[in-house]
Specification:
Layout (H helix, E strand, L loop, with lengths): L1 H4 L4 E3 L8 H8 L4 E4 L5 H4 L6 E4 L2 H13 L1 H15 L4 H16 L2
Parallel strand pairs: 1-2, 2-3
Length: 108
């Protein structure tokens, strides 16, 4: 986590993913993220223009990276939004949802 806290941008170039923990950790640490729009999991966590950028190809990914390198203000805004967005995955919130699901299934 210390390395994430010393970073400014997180790039997640995977083509295929499930639920990318490294991405959630980076966004929780307040990093704006860049990933591929076609990558499941990634495209569910990153909200384009709000918490980071979703690129359609490597050229777009490079453009997004340059945009964030040139704009500390945008990095800060997207990073703060990313941090807030990841609060939905707080263990207490997730556990409450699991408990509710189990209660619905079991009727208890």
């Amino acid at each position: 986590m210390a390395q994430l806290l010393s970073a400014d941008i997180f790039i997640f170039p995977s083509q295929f993913e499930g639920f990318p923990l490294a991405l959630t950790e980076a966004m929780s640490a307040g990093l704006p993220a860049i990933g591929f729009a076609s990558c499941s999991g990634v495209n569910e966590l990153i909200i384009h223009g709000q918490t980071g950028f979703l690129a359609n190809n490597k050229e777009e990914m490079q453009q997004c990276l340059l945009q964030l390198i040139k704009s500390p203000e945008e990095r800060k805004r997207l990073g703060e939004n990313a941090h807030e967005h990841m609060k939905a995955y707080n263990p207490e919130i997730v556990m409450a949802k699991w408990q509710k699901l189990v209660q619905q299934i079991t009727g208890q």
